Amino acid sequence: MVTCKMSEEKMFLKGTTTVGIAFDGGVVLAADKRATMGTFIAAKDVDKIALIGDKIALTIAGGAGDGQQLARTMRAELELYKYSKGKTLSVQGAATLLANILQGTKYFPYFVQIIVAGYDSQPRLYDLDLAGGLFPEKYVSTGSGSVVAFGLLDEHFKEGMQQEAAVRLAVKSVDAAMKRDNATGEGIDVLVITKDSAKRVSKAEVDRMLQN
């Protein structure tokens, strides 16, 4: 994730590594915590995984302000849907809504790449680009460190993975990116969404996985 610097021209600089993996019974999202402005580390404790519903979350890679604004918009839209319809919008519905927002602003775009994940009748994982492209995935990575992360994901992802194995793979993938991408760093946030809950993984548990 990056902050944006304005001068006579708008400068947009990108960074970050986010990962999403669907496993047997849920999805896991992982992301680093560094925000950069060029070669300057602008912030070291940025939350790039945002819950937008009880069991729906998104990750942000790209412009910090753009991503945060979209997260606020989606939280509001999902609450409005729940109160007006009396039920929760599905993960696919939320991802499609966000894709439509991005498509509608493509001439003055939000500079983001987003993962939307959650659980409704089953685990769901979507990759969205800044023009509103919507792609269902079983695993995905975004941001400047994604090339490194995909090296591990492509090799180690398996259909029907159990939760601990999927969380470990997500953590290891972001950690690998941190070692090679200078826009990725400052620790790893992890969120696990299942049929029953959406829970953050503790720093102690993340550290344990990195040591084994």
> What is the overall shape?
globular
| CATH architecture classification name | 4-Layer Sandwich
Distance between the termini: 28 Å
How is the main sheet built? 5 strands, antiparallel
Count of individual beta strands:
14
SSE ordering: EEEEEEEEHHEEEEHHEEH
Tell me the layout of helices and strands.
Layout: E1 5-6, E2 10-11, E3 18-23, E4 26-32, E5 35-37, E6 40-43, E7 49-53, E8 56-62, H1 64-85, H2 91-104, E9 112-119, E10 123-128, E11 134-136, E12 139-142, H3 146-156, H4 163-180, E13 188-194, E14 198-200, H5 203-211
Antiparallel strand pairs: 1-2, 3-4, 3-12, 4-13, 5-6, 7-8, 8-9, 9-10, 10-11, 13-14
Descriptive overview:
The chain is of the alpha+beta class and 212 residues long. It contains 5 helices and 14 strands. A hairpin with a 3-residue loop joins strand 13 and strand 14.
Short description:
The protein has 212 residues and is α+β, with helices and mostly antiparallel strands. 35% of the residues lie in helices and 32% in strands.
What attributes characterize this protein structure?
single chain, 212 residues, alpha+beta, five-stranded antiparallel beta sheet, 5 helices
